[in-house]
Amino acid sequence: MNHPAANSWSDPFGSNRLGLWLADRRDRKAGLLHRVAARWGWLKPMGERGKVVWIIAGAERDSVRLAVELLRAIRARRLDIRLVLTYEHEYPELLALLDDCDKTGWGYAPCDHPKAIARVLERFEPYGVVLVDTRQRPNLLAALAGRAHLLAVNVPGQIDFACERVYASNESATAIHQAPVADMHAILTEAQVDPNFKSLVNGNAERHLWWLHGASPGAADELAQALFAHAPQDILFVSGERPHAAVIAMSRWNREPPAGGSVLWVDDNKWLPGIAAAVTAAHLARFDAAVLWQAMAGGAALSRSPGMTLPKAALAEAVPEMADIAALWFSYRDAPIAARNQADTARRLFWQERRLAESVSRELVERVFEW
């Protein structure tokens, strides 16, 4: 599937000349000349000798994180090749993990203008290309057509271009040369979490903690009202958009137990593993693969909004559709064994996916080793 914003003037990595001119002007004013150079393909691999493998990530944090971990796994197995990682948004804390990788370069991606793509391919002369967790752009795909060593990893949508091997995360994807469907994000999920977070939030209080992800601010406010009307001492964590109602931002939380009826807005995803392990139940109003696996791994009962499609049909057992979230959560308060059984199902399916993803990941790295 092509990138939906490929021809938009607001896309700094697309092919629209007005958009690229505006992006160049913006970056020059900000002194980011390296972004301008990268946008037009003036990139060079590290080192002078060895085959080049180009790993292409997108703008999302999860895409860059997965690309970084795949690069590190490939580097550990293959020391002679030159590796290049490009991305559309920079996450310094993730890229710091590459500091000890020899013959490895990373930086902003080229735009999708044909001249930029032609220039970067001429300078890289890549022996292999790995597309990671991002919708691919049409001119790049056209330029890569016919290459023997092209891998697609967790690429969303249908893979309608030829690949040596497709590593799909969603069973709705169908492609020739497809590996067993497994979401690599499951490998990156923090599965063993310090349980002290719940005690930190509750102190000496006996109360339930709940987690809502991806809801609109208005929907989050409505759920908080319904929840606290019957459970005024409970705590609600909200990740995604900030609710309209008064909240405590997690980045400013003083680590003291919050007052009953507080809404804590998760403005940094570093808190999600602890939250997932502490809450009685969680609800996903919007699909996010990394959040889904973290919630399943955490050991809480889990639900999703009606109509949300899961990457695998078998997950519906652990993540049922639910419109009345407060009613479901109150039922879990009244029937803790049912909540525990639901959580155990989610955790079991998470570990099943993680083991499969680890196996598929090893196959991917071994394939690159054989190049």
Automatic annotation (TrEMBL):
**Mind listing the GO molecular function terms for this protein?**
Kdo transferase activity
Among InterPro entries, the record links this protein to: Glycos_transf_N, Glycos_transf_N_sf
Task: Give the EC number(s) listed in the UniProt record.
Answer: 2.4.99.12
Q: Which residues form the 3-deoxy-D-manno-octulosonic-acid transferase N-terminal domain?
A: 35-148
What superkingdom does the record give? Bacteria
* Pathway note: Bacterial outer membrane biogenesis; LPS core biosynthesis
Catalytic activity line of the entry: lipid IVA (E. coli) + CMP-3-deoxy-beta-D-manno-octulosonate = alpha-Kdo-(2->6)-lipid IVA (E. coli) + CMP + H(+)
Spell out the protein name for this chain: 3-deoxy-D-manno-octulosonic acid transferase
Organism whose genome encodes this protein: Sulfuriferula multivorans
